[in-house]
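B., you asked whether I could sanity-check this one before it goes into the benchmark set. Here's the sequence:
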Amino acid sequence: MAPEPVWIAGGYQSDFSRNITREGLDISALTSEVVHGTLDSSGLSAADIEVIHVANAFGQVYTGQGHLGAMPASVVPDLWGVPATRHEGACASGSLAVLAAMADLESGRYDCALVLGIELEKNVPGDTGAEYMAGAAWLGHEGQDAKFMWPYTFSRVAEEYDKRYGLDPRHLWRIAELNAGNARRNPNAQTRGWEYGPTAFTEDLTANPVVEGRLHKVDCGPLTDGGAGVVLLSDRYLAAHPDVRSRPISAILGWGHRTVGLPLEEKLRRSADQPLMFPHVAAAIQDAFARAGLAGVDDLDLIETHDCFTASEYMAIDHFGLTAPGESWRAIEAGDLEIGGRLPMNPSGGLLGGGHPVGATGVRMLLDCHRQITGTAGDYQIPDARRAATLNFGGSTTTTVSFVVG
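And here's what the prediction gave me:
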């Protein structure tokens, strides 16, 4: 018997362009803002919340503050006594928190869950922040020669794409340009006000310098301060509170979750004789499709995917099945990913344009899908959207989660 659906009652996203530290605030103030914003948008009060799941990847590294599951009750006294847990899975932390909340609701243990993703990354210099995030790889076992671990890692992904199928860097830069353009429509996007020169998305090394290996400046996502939250409800809660249906709500129709080992080279070795580079990523997506009853990718109206680097979105295109393996370039050249195209990808601006506060990203993706399905996405709304999917992963696709919302 299929589990009862889990419903999204509403949610909140902070403005990802802000620098919280420069405002004289800290992670507690950001948590308070996101809790209150999420409750207000959902039409619920703190008294309705039965369990809390907090996603945060690097809080202790960036701020020294741990035990962040207790932060909501510390800043919102009405949450005192509500069970809470912190989740860490690198960039997939937010989606893991959502999965844990769903399991709580599906088991019948609770009926109303608050899920938060919180991260501060701009309180240190950029080079230091890049060093802090290296711990999502296998330290001492990979990337020893890297200046910056994650540009190095995803440069290696681009290199492997080129080796297996061929890769034109202009297709990667077109992804960056599309997401920067979409971000201009999003009032919470980090880069919405950034100015790009005429050669920013080209091989011009002055405008678009190399960061590491094959990746240039526009191939790399920014460090971001921000938070996002959603309230999840069980079917039982809706039955007992029918007035909730008068508000814009959506349902999580399907999910997929796969975890593999940390090293990128081992992933590549295992897939050497397979059509796709990361078959476990495709498996997580297909698990979500199957649970949602979707026949395939064309049953979707949009995708919010993990574009920490242009190479990761390039990978997502063929792993979703938009093209044959290694032919992601076809969808880019055909305009398939654009708003108004066959299947818009990252209409919010994604991580490259919207920002990437690591612990919040999976929650933000789910919230953006909810907004699209409920027709509340504003200037980046996809007309008549009925089905949306996420792809969120941590590390070099080590922890992968996908959701389908409808």
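One thing to flag: The chain has 14 helices and eleven strands. Otherwise nothing jumped out at me.
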